[in-house]
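By convention, the token line describes the chain's fold. To illustrate:
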Amino acid sequence: MTKLSFGEKLGYGSAAVGDAAVYTFICTFLLFFLTTVAGIQPAIAGTITVVASVWNAIFNPIIGYISDHSRSPFGRRRLYMLGFVIPLFFVTILLFTSIHITYGLRVIYYGFMTMAFWTCYTGFFVPFYALGAEYTSDYNERTVLRSYASFFNIIGCCLSMTAPTTIVKALTDTGRTEMEAWAITAFIIAAFSLISILVTIIASKKIDAPGVNAADALPPADALPPAGEASLEENPEEGRSAILKIFREYIEVLSLKPIRIALMVCVFYLIGYTIIMSDLMYFLTYNMGYSGMQNSMALLFRSLIAMLLLIPSAWLCKITDKRTALIITFLVGAAGISVMRMIHVEGVLSLGLLLIMTAVCTVFYWQIMPSIIYDICEYDEYETGKRREGAIVSIQGLVEAVAAGIGSQILGIILQIVGFDGDAAMQTPLVESWIFNCATLVPAVLIVIAAIFMYRFPITRKVFEEIMQNLKERLPERKS
């Protein structure tokens, strides 16, 4: 069993602050910014996110494959984390910069910037995510590592959910325009994100050692099971192009039953998650009639609840296993927000209950699911003899971006159909009703579907322990 030091856990978790800060900032405020500040119609704004997601679906596997097969003086993961996090800083600012051009050119500008954002985010996120699998292969220790990452993740979420509206309000009160205020806010979020990610890049130097490639740690091909034929890089004479190599590798990864089921869980959950997170700003602003400061306080309360939920989440994983824990929390969260739809949320108490239930719906996934994806890496090694952390986690990253685009598109279409007006201070009862539905019933259905797929996931604690025992017997020199 590989026990990680406190410093190693903190060092890895630091980048989760930056990851969550920019990701949550986009999920929570981009659609709201585009429709209320930039003047983009809701359905068109949703389409922008979908187009960017399609591009990300192409780029995600590329960066996963490249990071798996790279060697450099900066390691194979940190090289790309550093190379993409700096442009991510600038793109985040440009994405929340409102420009005075024709409507058609504005749509093109924000479409391009959204694509650029997901390119930079993916270029950092996939190597960072894969790096976590290389810290340890112990079933429980991975959950602990992700608990640290989740703690920092919530700090990033708290920052990007509560600070923006407060900062925008403070800046506009000093005479700044709303457009200028959002650009400055994006600068603050992006700078905070950049610093936290740089800490992890520095702290993980020993884990992501220079010049190390996962293939170096594997035994000769004749020591592997039949399914694990020579990897692509061992047969350069085949003359296949890089694109064909990537395609073949991802076909192999997708042939694994656990990854296919996990991806279905991610798809349905993340569409629901995006709808909840994007809709909260609309709900607080129009249904509750809250000001910027009140929005910040409500979202801060939600973030603090999410932080407290890390404790029962870790306990639940320990007494059951990751699969069971995720199913339970999915169903409890979905039931909770469904019940809240039956209640007329109008005061602080009922709003608090709604925010608690939305936290239940969202926090457990980010703590447990990454560790589940890491376990698939050992399943892959057991079945094929290959270590492909980058390829495996990049598929989930691909799904995250696509699901975020689909979720925003669904919310945008719903808002446009019911008559949302971004220039109006108040919305019609029909619009408010559907804003409420999108914070409760719509995501609840999607989360229940995700729980059903999770039930079919084959890697339980017992199965994982059997896999690890088999790998140790087959590969005595393998490090745990």
